[in-house]
Amino acid sequence: MQFHKTTLPNGLRIISIPMPSVESATVMVVVGAGSRFENKNNNGISHFLEHMAFKGTKNRPSALAISTLIDGVGGECNAFTGKEETGFYIKSAATHVELSFDVLSDMLQHSLFDPKEINKERGVILEEINLYEDTPSRKIGDVYESLLYGNTPMGWDIAGKKEIIKKIHKKDFVDYMKSLYSANNIAVVVAGGIKHNKIVQLAEKYFGKMRHSDTLKYIKTIEKQKEPKLVVKPKKTEQVHIALGVRTVPINHPHKYPLMLLASILGGGMSSRLFHEVREKRGLAYYVRTMSEHYQDCGNLTSYAGVDSKRVQEAVSVILSQYKKIRNGLLNSNSKVKINELKKAKEFVKGHLILELEDSRSVAAFYASQELLENKIDTPDQVLQKIEKVTLEDIEEVAKKYFVNTNLNLAVIGNFNHGQRLEKILEL
User: Fold this and answer.
1) What share of the chain is helix, strand, coil (3-state, %, to 5)?
2) What CA–CA distance (Å, rounded) separates 345 from 340?
3) pTM
C-alpha cells in the first residue's frame, strides 16, 4: 500500500493512499492540536472545539445543514481528539470526495461559534464528562495518566474540567484556533478509490488560501520518578478497576516495536499470559489487557483489569509476577519468553493491523498519525517488517530496562480503601 505526498506553498501537507479495489474514500484533516497544548484556563477546549466544528459555518449556518449534506450522500462524518492531535473526517463514496473537502474546509476555516450553540453544546460536553465518570473502565486511563504526568497538560483529562468548560466562550475558541490551526500544522489525508493529482487539486482549491503562521509549542514532559507510585480514586462500584504499568519511551524510539510485542505477550488476546493467569486460571477479572502507548516525548506500557474488590491485591500480585517472570527470563528458563510465544505475538499484532487497514478510514488515520506525530511515514509493509525483525533478545532487553521499581505506577478506581496493602506489594 503506497502513498503520495505533496506540500502546498502554505505548508499544508497532502497525503493520498490509493486503494484501487475500494469504491469509498475517507477525507481526514488532522491538526497538531490536542489537550497537551492547553492551559489551566482553557483545559478541555480542544475537545470542545471538535464538537463546535459541526455546529454551523458561514456557508452552512447550522448543524442540520452540515449533517443533511453528508446524510444526503450516505456518508459518515465524525471527529476525534487526543492529547497531541485532533482529527475531522468524512467517509463517503469516492464520487463525493469534493463534497468532503468542501465541508471539512468550511468547518475548519469558517466556523461560526454561535454563543447559543456554544451554550447548548456545553451541556453535551458536561454530560460526556459525566459518562466517563460513570464508566470507570474508561476513566481508569485518565486517572493513570494523571498519576504519571501530574498537574500538567499531559496529566489532565482530554474532556476537561467542568468548571473550565462552563467558562469557555467564543473568543476562547477563536484564540485557540489562531494558536494552532495553521496550514503548516495540518495534514489532509485521503484514502480510498482516488487519484493523487485530483486530491492535490481539491486541496489547493479548498485549503490553498489557509494562513501559515507560527504555532503554539507543548510543554515537554519531565519524568523524575524514583519509587513506585499509587493513586486510589474511591468510587462506589461493583468492580474495582486497575491500571498497572511502567514508563517507557517516545513514539520514535527504536524500542517501540519490542514494547508493542511485549504488550501482546502479556495481554494481547485470549491466549496471552495475563488473560490466562488473571481470568482463566483464577477468575479474577472479566477483562484484562495490556497496551503500549507512545507520545512524542514519553510513553508507557500498562495492564488494565476490572476485578473483585476483595481480590484486588491478588490481581496486582499476579500481574506483577508476570512482569517479573519476563524480566528475569534469562535466569529462569520456565518463565522465559519462548520463540513460539514471540511468533504468536507477532502474528497477533500483524493480523490485527492487516484487518484494520481494510477500511479507508483506518488507512487514513494510520498515515495521518505518522505524518503529524513522527515526521516520517512507514508503509504497512515496512511496519510489518519491523515487527518481524524483533527478537527474543529485544523483548528481554526492554523487559529488563523498563520493568523496574522506579518506573512502576498503579491507579485504582472503585470501592477499595486499602491503598496501604497495595503499597506493600508494589515492587518489581
Assistant:
1) 50, 20, 35
2) 9
3) 0.95
* Distance separating alpha carbons of residues 153 and 149, to the nearest angstrom: 8
Pairing status of strand 13-18 against strand 186-192:
parallel
For 22-42, write each residue's pLDDT tens digit: 999 999 999 999 999 999 999
Alpha-carbon distance of 246 to 407, in angstroms, equals: 5
- Cβ atoms of residues 247 and 221 within 8 Å: no
Which domain covers residue 334, as residue numbers? 229-425
- The one-letter amino acid at 388: E
Domain contains 220 = no
DSSP-assigned letter for residue 341: H
23 is catalytic: no
Helices (H) and strands (E) in the chain, counts: 16, 11
Q: Are residues 201 and 283 in the same domain?
A: no
Residue 316 C-alpha cell reads as: 496486582
Task: Provide the CA 24 distance to its chain's centre, in angstroms.
Answer: 25
Q: Of the listed 23, 38, 50, 427, which one is catalytic?
A: 50
CB 316 within 8 A of CB 410: yes
Per DSSP, which regions of 248-307 are E strands? 285-294, 299-307
Q: How many CB atoms lie within 10 A of CB 332?
A: 10
399-406 average pLDDT score: 97
Assign residue 309 the CATH number of its domain: 3.30.830.10
**Apex 376 CA angle, 152 and 356, nearest 5:** 85
Whose cell is 523496574? That residue is 404
Average pLDDT over residues 161-185: 98
Is residue 213 in a domain? Answer: no
The per-residue pLDDT for 172 is 98
How many whole angstroms separate alpha carbon 188 and alpha carbon 201? 12
How many domains are there within the chain? Answer: 2
Residue 15 CA to residue 204 CA, distance in Å, equals: 13
> C-alpha angle 328/333/339, rounded to 5°?
95
Q: All 3 cell numbers of residue 86?
A: 485532533
- Cα–Cα distance, 79 to 62 (Å, whole number): 17
**Which residue reads 532487553 in cell numbers?**
397
Is residue 313 within 8 A of residue 422, CB to CB? The reply is yes
